[in-house]
Amino acid sequence: MKPADIRDAKIALAFQALNVSGSGRMSSADLEAYSKETAQRLRCDADRERELSESMQALWRYLEDNSKGPVGVAEFTNAIRTGLDAGNEFYDRVVTRIVDALVHAADRNGDGIISKEDYLAFYAATTTDEAAVMEGYRKLDLNADGAVTVDEFRKVVRQFYSFEGLDAAGSFLLGKPVI
Ligand SMILES: [Ca+2]
Ligand SMILES: [Ca+2]
User: Which one, 60, 70, 172, 175, has least CB within 10 Å?
Assistant: First the structure.
């Protein structure tokens, strides 16, 4: 697999996670369902739930503006790749917002650390493979001190969507290597 294809495969994984209906076509209802389900699972307070919901709305506005018609996995991957390749504007306006909302949701007690328990709860909806999730957790722990901070998580997400190939720790973000 070429590095560019590997990045596309990573973006497609994000599509699968967000396409809650499993229909293969993303709608604003999918993104709303994703944020509601995530907020419930992680027992977010009203502020965190709103932050998550607003970040998903920002993503939907971007997708609507950048793909004509139904948003399948190919349209989604194209739109996200185009945004990422255009520079920091898309990343800062949409991706950073989603990441901040997700780390605030994942850090359930607000201490700035995504604990192992936080991390397992975060992925409970998308995988039952606990060993693979914990392998991902160890990769996120960039300084290997046994805990993943909110900052480590942010750094790794940026790697996930910018570095091509599998070398970066971020390739393991969704709990397992993509290929
Ligand atoms: Ca925490
Ligand atoms: Ca650490």
Answer: 70
**Global pTM exceeds 0.90:** no
Residue 74 lies inside a defined structural domain of this protein: yes
Asked if 101 and 48 touch (Cβ cutoff 8 Å), the reply is yes
CA of 69 to the centre of ligand 2 (A): 42
CATH number at residue 69: 1.10.238.10
Residues in Cβ contact with 95 at an 8 Å cutoff, skipping those fewer than 6 apart = 84, 157, 161
Ligand 2 center to residue 162 CA distance, Å?
21
Which residues keep their CB under 5 angstroms from ion ligand 1? 107, 109, 111, 113
List Cα–Cα distances, 49 to 43, 77, 173, in angstroms: 9, 26, 22
* 105 is a domain residue: yes
The domain total for the chain is: 1
Query: How far is the centre of ligand 2, averaged over its atoms, from the C-alpha of 132 (Å)?
Result: 18
- Write out pLDDT tens, residues 128-167: 788 888 888 888 899 999 999 999 988 887 777 776 555 5
* pLDDT tens track for 90-136: 988 898 899 899 999 999 999 999 999 998 888 876 777 888 888 88
